[in-house]
Amino acid sequence: MIRTVLVCEAQVPFVRGGAELCVSGLVHQLRRRGFEADRVSVPFKWYPKEELAAQAAAWRMVDLSEANGRPIDLVIPTKFPTYFVRHPNKVTWLLHQYRAIYELCGTAYSEFTHVEADVRLRDRLMQLDEGALGESKRLYTIAKNTSARLALYNGMAADPLYHPPPLAARMRPGPYGSYILSAGRLEPTKRVDLIIRAFAKTRPPLRLFVVGEGPLGPDLRALAESLGVHDRVTFTGRVDEHPLVDLYAEALAVVFPPYDEDYGYVTLEAFLARKPVITTTDAGGPLEFVEHEATGLVAAPDPESIAAAIERLASDRACAARLGDAGFERARAITWDAVIDRLVGDARA
User: Fold this and answer.
1) What is the DSSP letter of 288?
2) Which residues on adjacent β-strands are paired with residue 10?
3) What count of other Cβ atoms lies within 10 Å of the Cβ of residue 60?
């Protein structure tokens, strides 16, 4: 019988993003179901890239077989490199691998190129991934996009397990207001710059609220200034839960065009506030929920196409409401109980 469960987390100090929120949510939900659950966190640095193997080795040396003389019944690794942990009952719920060595290699989003040294290191890390993930008693992912990547590069099959976003219980609908919303980390793969470039092609009095913090903050502010829309763009930085819920509730729509995202809480948070989502054809995970003309609008990943989608909703609030209502019905069906039943139930088998 499974009683004690540890969830493994690789955490970058001072950064709390979707992965960290997911781990916290899983631990909370396990406790709610009566399990003795805790998280095990090891600091993670992805640079210099030559140290990535050492990061994996650090998890390999962690002993989670027992704690204070009590056996640990189940461990749940989540992302690279947590799944290198050793345990006889390891059930991996894969948020993502180290994407810079997979589909991002050779793009502006990765420090890996196709030079010989990088190829050797990539090959070695992929081999290590396959060995460690292959030890899992069961292997799941966070989304179909993650499963597809795992199958393509590693030849492994895994079912996706969707979970609600952290703000699910707090989200509420509101009027379709005079601004669009961008929420998330200000980092390259989120492509907030693309949102700003698109917004610059829309007409006043529409406004843009950019919620979040990250390394690209100064560059994005400078971009808004250079495009002449700084007076219509508000950078809020990080906001607390209550004002964030209000921002969702009173937005016209949410624009979320990441590059090949694995899941993306933003999509589901928008839907739970009955707001339509504008995303792009290469967004990855959001496309598992955003169906063009059904729950949102899917545009080409260029400023002109995104701007046209924004203008359409600005001129047709009935359409925005119809899409938002359909998105709500899609998101409300996603529950934590379904995730825990699979992670823990299958581990008992």
Assistant:
1) G
2) 42
3) 13
Per DSSP (E only), the strands in 201-270 are 207-211, 233-237, 253-255
| Local structure of 276: helix, strand or coil | coil
What does the alpha-carbon distance between residue 257 and residue 270 come to, in Å, rounded to a whole number? 13
Distance CA 226, CA 201 (A): 13
Q: Using CA atoms, how far apart are residues 337 and 349, in angstroms rounded to an integer?
A: 18
For residue 15, the model assigns a pLDDT of 81
Please give the C-alpha separations between residue 58 and each of 2, 66, 89, in angstroms, as whole numbers.
Answer: 26, 18, 19
**Euclidean distance between CA atoms 291 and 191, whole angstroms:** 20
Cα(258)–Cα(139) distance, rounded to whole angstroms?
Answer: 25
pLDDT digits (tens, 9 = 90+) for 21-41: 999 999 999 999 999 999 999
Which residues, other chains included, contact 298 with Cβ-Cβ below 8 Å and sequence gap of 6+?
Answer: 278, 279, 280, 281, 283, 287, 290, 291, 292
Residue with the two structure tokens 């729950």: 295
Length of the chain measured in residues = 349
Strand partners, 91: 138
Contacts of 107 (CB under 8 A, 6+ apart): none
For CA atoms 22, 16, 149, 151, the dihedral sign is: negative
Q: Radius of gyration over alpha carbons of the chain, in Å?
A: 21
Cβ proximity of 167 and 241 under 8 Å? yes
User: Are 47 and 111 contacting, i.e. CB atoms less than 8 angstroms apart?
Assistant: yes
Ordered domains of the chain (ranges, CATH): 4-163+335-348 (3.40.50.2000), 179-331 (3.40.50.2000)
- Which two structure tokens, joined as six digits, stand for 214? 């990250």
pTM of the predicted model as reported, rounded to 2 decimal places: 0.89
pLDDT single digits (tens) 39-49: 999 999 999 99
